[in-house]
Design brief:
Belongs to the metallo-dependent hydrolases superfamily. NagA family. This protein has helices spanning 23-35, 50-68, 106-113, 132-141, 155-164, 185-192, 209-218, 258-267, 272-277, 281-287; strands at 6-10, 12-13, 16-17, 40-45, 77-78, 81-84, 120-125, 145-148, 168-169, 197-201, 224-227. 35% of the residues lie in helices and 14% in strands.
Length: 291
């Protein structure tokens, strides 16, 4: 039986994204994803104020319920949701809304996830924030995977997050402090720790081909997960030589679907079997790593 192709980090595609109150929009995203060769998705919710995030989470939950009670097969299965924030470092906001980042507290977490903990698969957190390590322990006990990202963490802070239960790193290299030979930081931790999973955005814009080559040379293959980080503009317009960017030339997210990225790496010379494991077996194992 063919292993399902899974994208654990996708915000949108085809003019739609998770910033919606409409379950129909989420189902349309699932339909487009299936047409693009993806069997399962973990829709990723943008950081915003808690009530807005909950509104967007409600749309995903309703879409999951509609899928569960329908016989539609032309949609990627919605496997749960990924919260990219709001417990992130404003100095490493990337394209996210830094004014919505908040301190990691149990009270804020409970307000955010009440009624949704059964469908939340992943929460991205910056481990260096005050209170983050304690929150990572709590989230892990709830059976939710913690991924470290949008972070300026030192190597020691990354290790503390991992020791508290974090099991992944969100889009390695992107929106993190750069690697330094005296302070390898979260990037260095992700490359050298053999147990932690890493997301890799493999479109032509987020990582130099040599950085991708470094990842595959340093990491055990079974810990590499290729993601799209796709945004609503993906598939709707030709991208510039800089990808999908804002007026400040900041990358706004992935510019290619998951399978476009996988095919690109294969065309560049990567082994097809290895690349396919990074979009099938590896994300499947990661999503079940706390079960």
């Amino acid at each position: 039986m063919k292993s399902p192709i899974i994208d654990i980090h996708t915000h949108g595609v085809g003019g739609l994204d998770t910033r919606t109150a409409s379950a129909a929009d989420i189902l349309k995203i699932a339909e487009i994803q299936m047409a693009c060769g993806v069997d399962g998705i973990v829709p990723t919710v943008y950081t915003d104020d808690i009530q807005t995030m909950r509104l967007h989470m409600s749309a995903i939950k309703e879409a999951m319920e509609l899928q569960r009670h329908s016989r539609l097969t032309a949609q990627a299965v919605i496997l749960g949701l990924h919260l990219e924030g709001p417990f992130l470092n404003p100095q490493r906001c990337g394209a996210l809304k830094r004014t919505a980042f908040i301190k990691p507290t149990e009270r804020a977490l409970n307000e955010l996830i009440e009624g949704f903990s059964d469908i939340i698969k992943i929460i991205t957190i910056a481990p260096e924030l005050d209170g983050a390590v304690e929150l990572i322990r709590l989230i892990t006990k709830l059976g939710i995977i913690v991924s470290m990202g949008h972070s300026g963490a030192t190597y020691a802070e990354a290790l503390a997050g991992f020791s508290a239960g974090a099991r992944g790193i969100t889009h390695l290299f992107n929106a993190t402090a750069p690697f330094h030979h005296r302070e390898p930081g979260l990037v260095g931790f992700g490359l050298t720790n053999k147990a932690i999973y890493i997301e890799v955005i493999a479109d032509p814009y987020h990582l130099h081909p040599s950085a991708i080559e470094l990842i595959f040379a340093a990491k055990p293959l079974d810990k590499i997960i290729i993601v799209s980080d796709s945004v609503k503009e993906t598939g709707t317009m030709p991208t510039s030589s800089a990808g999908i960017t804002d007026i400040n030339n900041t990358l706004q997210g992935g510019a290619a679907t998951l399978m476009e990225s996988a095919r690109r790496l294969i065309q560049l010379g990567s082994d097809e079997d290895k690349i396919m494991r990074c979009v099938t077996e590896n994300p499947t194992r990661y999503l079940s790593s706390l079960s």
